[in-house]
Amino acid sequence: MSNHQILDPADHAELRIHIGPGAEYGDKVMACLAVPNEFRRLATDYPIVFHYDQEHRSFSALALMGFEKDENLFLDGRSWSASAKPMALAIQPFLIGRSRDASSAAQVHVDLDHPRIARGVDGVRVFDDAGRPTPYLEQIMSMLAELDEGHRASGAFFSALDRYDLLEPFALDVPRAGGGEHRLVGYHLINETKLRALEPGAMSELHAAGHLLPLFMALASLGNLGKLARRRAAKNHG
């Protein structure tokens, strides 16, 4: 369940947020939505893969953090062993809200039923005593704006991937702690062979549209698949 409200200092003057990592705060997830304008930042640590939604007939990008449901190999108690979190995870419990026709300006909403909502004096304040956004909230608003911009631009990026047939399905077998293997399926990767074979005109088009950098970042991130598997093996034998 969720309880979304427009963030307002009059209604949420005392609102506080748990900002540290923790399974109880919703961080125990194997993957998180990612947008192309953050691929460069995420490619340092996470494999970036793509998922096809059959119902909506569209692709989305994911930063992979584990290989099975509720497995986050970057989360270790109260620590997060990566240089950055995907923005869609880092901004919780906040989100961008718009009217149904999207004609009004975007507003910051907060989910008051989210586990990151702190009770009592715990957590970081969202507004100061004068009702102004704290540095924490200013940082969140900046990320929300960047994430919103990324979502708006991602449609053209995924259309380009489809137009040039640059995604291919893949499967990966990962050893289980108790023996046997788990097969990761249902995801796509950038097809490096087809990317390299693109005509110069197509490459120029992708570059002019700003798609080439996130494409190469997603491709480069695939080296993290092996690192993620080794991280899993180390945890299983730790």
Low-confidence stretches: none
Helix % is 25-40%
How many distinct domains?
1
The number of E-state strands comes to: 12
Radius of gyration: 20 Å
- Percent of residues in β-strands: 15-25%
For the sheet with most strands, the description reads: 3 strands, antiparallel
Specify the oligomeric state.
single chain
Name the strands of the widest sheet in spatial order: 1-9-8
From the N-terminal CA to the C-terminal CA, the straight-line distance is 36 Å
Structural class: alpha+beta
**Overall pLDDT level:** 92
Q: What is the 3D shape?
A: globular
SS field, number of helical segments: 7
Q: Secondary-structure element order, as H and E?
A: EEEHEEEEHEEEHEEHHHH
Organism: Sphingopyxis alaskensis (strain DSM 13593 / LMG 18877 / RB2256)
InterPro entries: SapC
Protein name: SapC
Pfam families: SapC
